[in-house]
Specification:
This protein is mainly α. The protein has 13 helices and two strands; from the N terminus they run H-E-E-H-H-H-H-H-H-H-H-H-H-H-H. It has helices spanning 3-25, 39-69, 82-95, 102-125, 128-153, 156-166, 178-194, 196-202, 206-211, 216-238, 244-255, 260-284, 293-318; strands at 26-27, 30-31. Helix 1 runs parallel beside helix 12 (260-284) and helix 2 (39-69) packs antiparallel against helix 10. It is globular. It starts with a helix and ends with a helix.
Amino acid sequence: MNASHRWLWAGLIAASLGLPWLALSSSAGHLAWPDLADPLVTQLRLPRIVAALGVGAALAASGAALQALFRNPLADPGLIGTSGGAALAVIAVLALGLAGLSLPLAAFGGGLAATWLILLLARLAKGGLAGLLLMGLVVGAFCGAVSSLILFLSDDLTLRAASSWLAGNLGTAQPDRLWPCLLIAGLGVALLCAIGRDLDCLLLGEESARSLGVNTVRTRRLAAAGAALATGGAVALSGVIGFVGMMIPNALALLVGGCRRKLILLSAWAGALFLLAVDTLARNIAWPLDLPVGLMAAFAGPPFFIWLFRRQQGSANHA
């Protein structure tokens, strides 16, 4: 184990021990020892911490798998349309006045439909890897336009609720759907881990993967389903949070590399801690305002995206 690996493990373990306590203890910009008998802690703050950990893990794991599926390090559930499809389905459900288990199920269906549509359009257009990302952006933009149309035609109450949710707000995570959403997201992460070896082979290209005995069609379908489950559960719980699925897997790939299954698991761990840290900052930085965690994550995403894009372009030019 080299120095970077040791520092990574030490950092993850330290953050796993310290961040939950910090999130429980911080309020109004101050630190105080958490009183577990206080309903504010047990009924509001603790479920929000669990939601942040689960959503961060699901989004980062989805990003690690989608980057292998699309063979592009810029792939992210929020960028390629998976989150957009999930968001569109949830907004449609909210506009119809439904709730409960229908939200995570709708988010899963919307995310899966968007991912499969991207794969189908890219195959028909024969645009290669760049075509996959382009089709993802197109599908995501279309889902955003339809979502905006539904909200424009909705009443003020639905519009207000959906606007906060679209910004990616863990403060709106309701305890009654916390565990169903996390269960669906967990099933998606487990499915992605199960096909980790096949995703490694898929990174080598279609022909190479087939020569290694991988059923590429089945792998793509399972990867799309797993990413849709994980992303759908996260979106139904917290709304749309972008860039987490792009930043965390790429940062870990630079540090540790390794097989895709290992990267998915490490991404889930680091993504959970990252989103918890960002949400804790969002709760305290502008108190008494509770900033949306999706807004805070968006500030870090574009600089990382530009750096990664330039790095990829530099690698291509040197090759």
